[in-house]
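Duplicate of earlier report; Pentapeptide repeat-containing protein input re-posted below.
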Amino acid sequence: MMINELKMTETKTISWTELEMLVNDLKKKHTNKGLTDLETKILKGIFDDKTYRDLAKEIRQEEQSIKNAAYDLFKILSEQTDEKIGKSNLITALARYRDNSQTFDHNNKPQTQQSDKVFELVIEVDIDDLTPEKIDKINNLIQKIARDNTIKPIMKLKGSIRLFLEGSEDGLQRLADLHQSGELQALLNELKSDDIPEIIVKKAEFTTDAKVIEKAELIKAIREGTIDKTTLRFVDLSGAILIGAILIGAILRGAILIGAILIGAILIGAILRGAYLREADLSGADLRRADLRRANLSGANLSGANLIGAFLSGADLRRANLRRANLRRANLRRANLSWANLRRAILIEADLSEANLSGAKVENAIFIDATGITPEQKQDLIRRGAIFGDTSNDRSKALV
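Output:
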């Protein structure tokens, strides 16, 4: 759906739905009453750049009565925004107010206190791979609609797309109210970018599920660094969004982190033995000397991760993305790397004894001084593009 907009000034444009909602909210604050039908028609006429005369003919009203109603509305809006508002600057003034009110209100009052509640948003959107980038785009839409840039996802779970959000009391309540009135779905679809298909909102409400609330509190405590990191054995953190989390030396043995987003997380020396990290996103994470023995990392994204000296013996890395990962001196004994992406990975001095590399993509992966590889395996890897840095990489000999 294209957003109808006026091309005026450098202020970010505002959609018709946003404008109507914002003016309705401002009038309600002042009079406890929303927009009348006439006021809505006046607002739409101004948005469509119509003159009062054209609008009078269109809605069959006296031009002066339209001007009087517009004057009264402008007076309310001027008082609420602390800016003189008239027909000529209505759009830009309110777009500016909207942008400013996302971080502070116009009376310099502090933003409302963060809610201790957890908000559940269930949406259907035809995206096969809901990447962190797309989650971020959807969250930006939600922040914009709620006029609260503190809203952020705590975790995502499958089954449609279940996002659990934290934010201010007012921002989250606004989302609930908009869903109740049927406006939330319309706003999301009006404001979304073209690379996101139609969004269907199935649920938007504060959750009362005690287990979800407890899990959300745990995730927030990890984010804020207020938790004892030695108490995380076997915890359920599936779908947790822990981008950049600092978990140095954390004991996460047997923890459930399926589908968790740990991009750029610092997990140096962390104990993740036997943890379930299937389809987790650990791209760019620092896992130096981490204990990942017998961990399930099938389908996980470890691209660009630092795994120097990591213990990965017996780990399940089937179809994992290890592109450009640094596995120098990593222990990969009996690890299952079948169909993993190891392109440009560094495996210098890694121990690959009894490791399964069948189907793995190894173009330009560096295996210099790697141990546990049989001569037959070495020649096979060279044929597939691996680099060993000795005379064995003479392809003319390897292909004889």
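Residues 222 and 245 are 7 Å apart (CA to CA).

Merging into the original ticket.
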